[in-house]
Design brief:
Length: 95
């Protein structure tokens, strides 16, 4: 009867806001060290369930910070290098 509450905020304004969450910062650091890690492995590394991890991953994906690749049932996670390079270029242009 009532819609399920969404674990994902309806609006993330900036990367800074998204990374203000310590778990999301840890996700990014783990992906730097372990590109292609599976969601299951990431959840185990963080000590959280895959269900509670999914909302955080969705936020990072919506921002373009991470991307996923599917191979059958396995989902591998990577930092989105093109986004990071573009952010660096945008920052240089502002200086």
């Amino acid at each position: 009867m009532f819609p399920e509450p969404s674990p994902v905020p309806s609006k993330i304004l900036s990367i800074r806001e998204a990374l203000s969450n310590p778990l999301r910062r840890r996700i990014v650091l783990i992906l730097i060290e372990n590109p292609g890690i599976s969601i299951r492995q990431l959840a185990r590394e963080l000590g959280v369930g895959a269900g509670s991890l999914s909302g955080h991953l969705l936020i990072l994906q919506r921002l373009g910070l991470i991307r996923e690749e599917r191979n059958g049932r396995r989902v591998s996670l990577y930092l989105n290098q093109s986004f990071l390079l573009g952010a660096r270029e945008r920052r240089r242009a502002k200086l």
